[in-house]
Amino acid sequence: MRISALADAVGLPVATVKFYLREGLLQPGVATSATQASYDESHVRRLRLVRALIGSVGLSVQQARAILELVDDPGDDLYSTLGRAVGALPPAVERREGDDPYPRARAALAALGQVFDPEYAAVAQLESALAAAESAGMPISDERLQAYGDLLRKLAAFDLERMPDEPHAAVEYTVLGTALYEPVVVALRRLAHQDEAARRRGIPS
Amino acid sequence: MRISALADAVGLPVATVKFYLREGLLQPGVATSATQASYDESHVRRLRLVRALIGSVGLSVQQARAILELVDDPGDDLYSTLGRAVGALPPAVERREGDDPYPRARAALAALGQVFDPEYAAVAQLESALAAAESAGMPISDERLQAYGDLLRKLAAFDLERMPDEPHAAVEYTVLGTALYEPVVVALRRLAHQDEAARRRGIPS
């Protein structure tokens, strides 16, 4: 298909598609003349990914490029690549230095019996979240940590069981499954609260 | 205690405490002279709440005031007050008009057997999240919706069981439990993914 049909297929302006081509986020088509190229389903798929990263997740072109490089070249150590890809997603968290920079997250992960790797961005994220709850006078209790941790491990197991085996697809699945499904999880939690409150109030649902 | 001791107790500059007093976010102390007032534990508690809403959640003074008014005056219909308080939290989502403005969220909540109330802000939030996943070519499958929905209802039941009976405290618990625990949930989900990936890779944790 031509670039106009490609743009139509994804619902983006042709100018945006050309911009992504120039920025190297979208692979070139096959040249069919000096001024035209032909695109296929692989371009449609890639454009959807680029649009998701920039449009929905809100990444800059540079941040999107860093993630796309990991999708394109996952390397031999998929586990570490997945960690770096997720670490490149928002929220941006400041890494801390020092002997024990993440004491709350370290204790929480020990209590849950989970891997603690201070290089992993979500550790700093958990530390900030636990500190904010604590300073508001509503620290996460041990009981709540166990309950949340247990349910979220079940959710993670569900996600991992469905991760594609092919490495490029696995990175894409992990990045989008993290960035795009988090807002679903958060909205569903709020709606579950509402539903639960309605039931306790005696409203039939 | 004097204002300086109050500020110390919470770790805020005296100027910030005075600003919150002027803005009416913090109730006045008991005047002990023409220029001095005395503050107690209720002020410490309130300051922690104000700081959480403005500092951690990132609300404006005006947005924080709207929530504090619901904490201070929960009214007779607690269920509706809780809905309005949570609806005043980020993310800001545009309400849509029309016959069926939230088709994805409506279908998802019907599939889960949960309350569907288009006035509730999280419905618009869920609609956007589902639409973004769909347009990236990774729609939430029925199977995933059921799995996530089931686990998040269990999480919500845990939260509701611990909600204080006293209405002012219930609004405060709901607002902070939503805004401050969401980042904990999101970070724990990412860390559960990492832990699950490590287990599958054969790394002892």
TrEMBL record, chains A, B:
InterPro entries: DNA-bd_dom_put_sf, MerR-type_HTH_dom, MerR_fam. One of its GO terms (molecular function) is DNA binding. It comes from the Bacteria. Coiled coil: none annotated. Residues 1-70 form the HTH merR-type domain. Keywords: DNA-binding. This is MerR family transcriptional regulator. The lineage of its organism: Bacteria, Bacillati, Actinomycetota, Actinomycetes, Micrococcales.
